[in-house]
Known about the structure:
alpha+beta, three-stranded antiparallel sheet, 2 domains, four-stranded antiparallel sheet
Amino acid sequence: MFSIDDFEKLEKKKSRINLFTFIISFFISVILFVLLNLVRYKILIFVFLILIYLFLSYLVTRNLNRRFEKKHSDIVSYIFYREFYKQKKYDIKRNFTPSEIVNFIQNLDCKSYAEANNISTEYYYVQNNEYPILKFEENYFQHYTRKISWKDLFWKYSFIMNDEVYEFLTTNYTNNNKEIEEEIITDKISAKSFHIFLLFILYDLKYGQKLSLSRGYYTKKKCFKFLGIKIWD
């Protein structure tokens, strides 16, 4: 089972280790610089530093990721890795057989999975905890007062991570033969990063279109941050 808390701890641990790796790389570079008598080629110390740091960082990060992925290796985990790292190696159909996917979805208990991650299934306006905005149920997804069947709901997601995590989510559904697209403004919702995203994965897998099984169906667009301004591509 995927754990968002454990994943956050992993990323913080990697940040600390990367800093330590940089310091080690610096000392190794200086030692090599002196031993090889390269005083006349000062630029080489920076070349050594970069190469050694990249190599050590790659080894450490790969080892940490492998250990974490071995412990958290279900389909939800791989969907999250695929989106977070933007790497094809986490593609669901490459890592799971059709029968494994079907069995996982059949046995999936959305509420238990959410509870294990301390994720609420109801969300309120950030400035008024009595004003409901989102609700996740077996039969429907509720946005304000609108209740939409999971079978009729399509969703798209993207995020940017810089000094903060900014998530972008839209839903699309048909009502009275009219197609409706709505943006879920996550800034207005009292929720931790990636919690709503995980809920969409869980409930859509179990009750809906299963869009997250294939990345191209639901990724929205990329967001870039320039001079503090968020720009959507």
